[in-house]
Amino acid sequence: MVRQFQHYADLSEADIELLDSLEHSPEQLPAERTVWREGGAANELAVLSEGWACSYYTLEDGSRLILDIYLPGDVIGLREFATSEHMATVETITECTLCRFPHHHLTDVFAKSFKLTRTFFAIATTQQSILVERMINLGRRNASNRIAHFLCEMYTRLGRMNDNMNGNFRMPLSQEMLADIMGLSSVHVSRTFSQLHDDKLVERSRHNIRIPDMDRLVEHAGFTDNYLGTRSIIENRA
């Protein structure tokens, strides 16, 4: 969590101690375990210390739309800080280490650190911006551009926590999950990856992704990372 926050701000030792206080009592969860359900009482947040998780809406026909992919260091539940009920179900994708904390602990952090208050706000708005990009993906990009854009986003987000990725990363998402993120069928997802492979843009082997030429994939996707938050912009607005 600290490394994630350091992308947005230069933290003092006191700030780091405050963040560490939110990661007490880690909880080990297996893959495909529900963290909380849509409609349940929203009285806590969580820090994802290890693993991957997601949030999703269940539609009337029983299908689902995946909204968020959470990576290590992400804070889960920020959008629901002002609501009485969880707006979406959160579920682990892989084995995870999760640290839950009640809303009032976040209020305590706000009272003690202006810098962390600003950083939490920046992270919440970044999460909202990711949702906007997801809407653009669903409504205005074709299948190839959707998947390419999503891969660029995952690579960029993971790169903030991992040095020297060299065009390779692990993405533990099933074909069905990718379909639920992209608003496509599983068959269409498979065909699109085949096309991206034929175009020498992406190589996929099970959950392993290799991007031979990141610049080409970025151009194909029309991807810019501005919506993922930039420290210089945040500090200039302090």
TrEMBL record:
SUPFAM superfamilies: cAMP-binding domain-like, Winged helix' DNA-binding domain. Keywords: DNA-binding, Transcription, Transcription regulation. The keyword DNA-binding applies. GO terms for molecular function: DNA binding; DNA-binding transcription factor activity. InterPro entries: cNMP-bd_dom (IPR000595), cNMP-bd_dom_sf (IPR018490), Env_Response_Regulators (IPR050397), HTH_CRP (IPR012318), RmlC-like_jellyroll (IPR014710), WH-like_DNA-bd_sf (IPR036388), WH_DNA-bd_sf (IPR036390). GO terms for cellular component: cytosol. PROSITE patterns: HTH_CRP_2. This is Crp/Fnr family transcriptional regulator. The lineage of its organism: Bacteria, Pseudomonadati, Pseudomonadota, Gammaproteobacteria, Oceanospirillales.
